[in-house]
Amino acid sequence: MDIRIVPRVLRGCVKAPPSKSQAVRLIICAALADLPTRINICGDLSDDIKAALDAAAALGCGIIEADCYVLISPPVEYPKKADIFCRESGAVSRFMLPVAAALCDEVLIDGDAGLRARPMGELISEMERRGCSIDGDSLPLRIKGRLRPGEYISGGKISSQYASGLLLALSVLAGESVLTLNDSLENSGYIAMTVEALRLFGADIEIRVQRFYINGGRLISPGSVDIEGDWSGAAYLLGCGRGVELTGLNPESSQKDKEIVPLLSKIRALRDGEIYIDCGNIPDLAPVLAAVAASCRGVVRLYNIKRLRFKESDRIKAICETLSALGADISISEEGLVICGADKLHGAVVSSFGDHRIVMAAVVSASAAAETGKFDGELIIRGAEAVNKSYPGFFTDYKSLGGEIYGL
């Protein structure tokens, strides 16, 4: 899908999309529970949420989808063999790799072409150390042998999803396990979300500094759980203009991307100065922060972004190419990205790079510049359907705020 946008000043209020990060974790916990769980989730289901539901179904769960909820009924017995297709969800693949190995004798895990290129090696090595035989170091992967409880080690330099996947799996393995993080964990907010979801389902987890002590067993369904609004997706509409508001967001959420509010204020308040932003715990905000900075009145430096190389695209390269095409002054440094606010941005034809956040960042950059009279022309995005991965209603919400969009 290709679209043409004529940037306008946006005003109004929309409901935030459901948090895909929280939904994926709760869906997997529901699949591991003793009784059915109703997950209350209003809004269009993103591709990542659908991938989690597909994974639960592959484990033998019954799935009922209604207007504002999904009902997940776990099986009495999990299948000995399972084939799990994760679409393009890195989280679902890295969660289900150890989870399925804890439940089944043999598992095939695969995904779309983009997911096959994403690293899995560190997680695979740790699983092989604890009872599994795995062919290869990237998808598709066939796992034989069941995961055993015990002592595990995980790093966080590439992805916190490795640790989250192990926490989910160890919580259902009968016996005691310890997960040690062997380096400083960036993205710790996502680990907190995983622990929060597991504890909601009765998991016995104790945290001492860099160690997680887990007393495993089948999870206990809370009966019904709510999905809160997604700060990651909301950040992109908030970045489009000062007049945009979103409801359904929890300011006390464990989602680290709630930091978008003070960070946008800092960038918009710049007057020929510069600010440094550590993206270690908020990697999904890097594209929107860069997009807003492209038309600011100062310099914004984003650092701790190396993991962006391993997303749906090489996100560092994609951000640079996209914003440069619009006339932004952006460069890659040893630390990360340096964005110097430009006097004017202009229309261009840009690629989505198959990445939902790059599509939204391009829209943000044009819209933020238009709000201050710094944009000329039109924006054309090739492959804009990539937004369906996390925020399928993005363009509908954008239009409701006064955005002008045309299909090509």
Tally the structural domains. 2
Structural class by sheet pairing and helices:
alpha/beta
CATH class of the largest domain: Alpha Beta
CA-atom Rg in angstroms? 21 Å
Largest sheet: 4 strands, mixed
Report the total helices.
13
Helical content class: 25-40%
CATH fold title of the largest domain: UDP-n-acetylglucosamine1-carboxyvinyl-transferase, Chain
Beginning-to-end CA distance, first to last residue: 8 Å
The strand order across the widest sheet is 20-21-1-22
CATH architecture of the largest domain: Alpha-beta prism
Mean pLDDT across all amino acids: 94
Shape: globular
Strand content: 25-35%
Label this structure with key terms.
UDP-n-acetylglucosamine1-carboxyvinyl-transferase, Chain, 32% helix, four-stranded mixed sheet, 2 domains, single chain, 22 strands, 408 residues, alpha/beta
Brief rundown of the structure:
The chain is of the alpha/beta class. The protein is 32% helix and 25% strand.
